[in-house]
C-alpha cells in the first residue's frame, strides 16, 4: 500500500528503511524527502505511521536475522 502518493513511498519502502536502522521521525523525513516542496505535507503530519512501520521492519530484521 502507498504511504505517500506524492513521493511514491510504499509500506515496504518504510519497512526497508526500518531494517536499515532508520526509525526516528527526522531520519524518515530526511530519507523520503517528506518536507520538500511539491509534496502535499500529509505524510510529514502523519509521520508516526511511518515510524510504526519502520519499527516493525527493524523488529522483523532482528527476528529474521538479517
Distance between the termini: 23 Å
Structural class: mainly alpha
Q: Biggest sheet: strands side by side, in what order?
A: 1-2
- Provide the low-confidence segments as ranges: none
Which shape, going by the Cα principal axes? elongated
Give me some keywords for this one.
66 residues, mainly alpha, two-stranded antiparallel sheet, 4 helices, 2 strands, elongated
Task: Reconstruct the topology from this structure.
Elements: E1 2-4, E2 9-10, H1 11-19, H2 25-32, H3 42-45, H4 47-64
Helix pairs in contact: 1-4
Structure description:
- With 66 residues, the protein is mainly alpha-helical.
- 59% of the residues lie in helices and 8% in strands.
- It is built from 4 helices and 2 strands.
- It has a two-stranded antiparallel ribbon.
- A hairpin with a 4-residue loop joins strand 1 and strand 2.
- Helix 1 crosses helix 4 (47-64).
- The model has no long low-confidence stretch (mean pLDDT 87).
Q: Concise description?
A:
The protein is mainly α and 66 residues long. It has four helices and two strands.
Amino acid at each position: 500500500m502507498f504511504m505517500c502518493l506524492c513521493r511514491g513511498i510504499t509500506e515496504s519502502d518504510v519497512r526497508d528503511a526500518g531494517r536499515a536502522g532508520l526509525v526516528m521521525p527526522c531520519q524518515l523525513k530526511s530519507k523520503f524527502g517528506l518536507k520538500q516542496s511539491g509534496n502535499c505535507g500529509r505524510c510529514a503530519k502523519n509521520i508516526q505511521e511511518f515510524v510504526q512501520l519502520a519499527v516493525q521492519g527493524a523488529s522483523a530484521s532482528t527476528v529474521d536475522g538479517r
